[in-house]
Design a protein that fits this description.
By secondary structure, the chain is mostly helical. It has 6 helices and 2 strands, in the order αββααααα. It has one domain.
Length: 189
């Protein structure tokens, strides 16, 4: 007497849930400084309005490789720190009449530290390596926090907005890849 065999179900492996990226503490502090809002999504992760961080969380920097996506984001964060260290936002214009009238020493509008000078040299080297087509796009999106739509003026030869966005994202990816070694972020261990 044989026992009745139970039908076997084919085991199907479930796809693991895609990794969700939360905002880093540095980005939360920077958002608080700028007065940006931080909102919680349905899955209780904090979301920022910064377009470069949105590109990271949606994997737009490297759609098929999460590690490369995060590496490119780290390069962008290093570029932000380098720009802040260069104090490019703190430069002020000096009236020409005052230049010779002040006593010797550090004057307003001139770099006061060697670190700022070195950071400016690194920024110039990054601009030379990246090239004139991709450098303004990288600065606008990564440093200034502009949206991709705001950068379409850098691709005037392309008529359709979706194609211009694709070209600009490609320029941003190439820029981040080329300047990684200069800002100190590489994928090598």
């Amino acid at each position: 007497m044989s026992a009745k065999a139970k039908p076997r179900r084919a085991r199907t492996r479930r796809e693991p849930a895609p990794e969700r990226l939360d905002a880093t503490p540095e980005r939360l502090a920077r958002a608080a400084e700028k007065g940006e809002g931080v909102e919680r999504s349905r899955d209780r992760l904090r979301r920022l309005v910064d377009p470069f961080d949105v590109m990271r969380s949606t994997r737009a920097l490297a759609p098929h490789d999460p590690r490369l996506n995060d590496l490119r984001w780290l390069i962008g964060e290093a570029l932000r720190r380098l720009h802040r260290r260069a104090q490019c936002d703190a430069l002020r214009a000096v009236v020409p009449d005052v230049v010779g009238a002040t006593p010797p020493g550090p004057r307003s509008g001139l770099p006061a530290s060697e670190a700022a000078l070195r950071a400016r040299d690194q920024l110039r080297a990054c601009a030379e390596r990246v090239g004139p087509a991709a450098w303004p796009v990288a600065l606008r999106i990564v440093v200034e926090g502009a949206r991709l739509a705001d950068c379409r003026v850098y691709a005037p030869e392309i008529a359709t907005p979706w194609r211009a966005d694709a070209v600009l994202v490609d320029r941003l990816r190439v820029a981040l890849d080329r300047m990684g070694e200069l800002v100190g972020v590489t994928g090598r261990r």
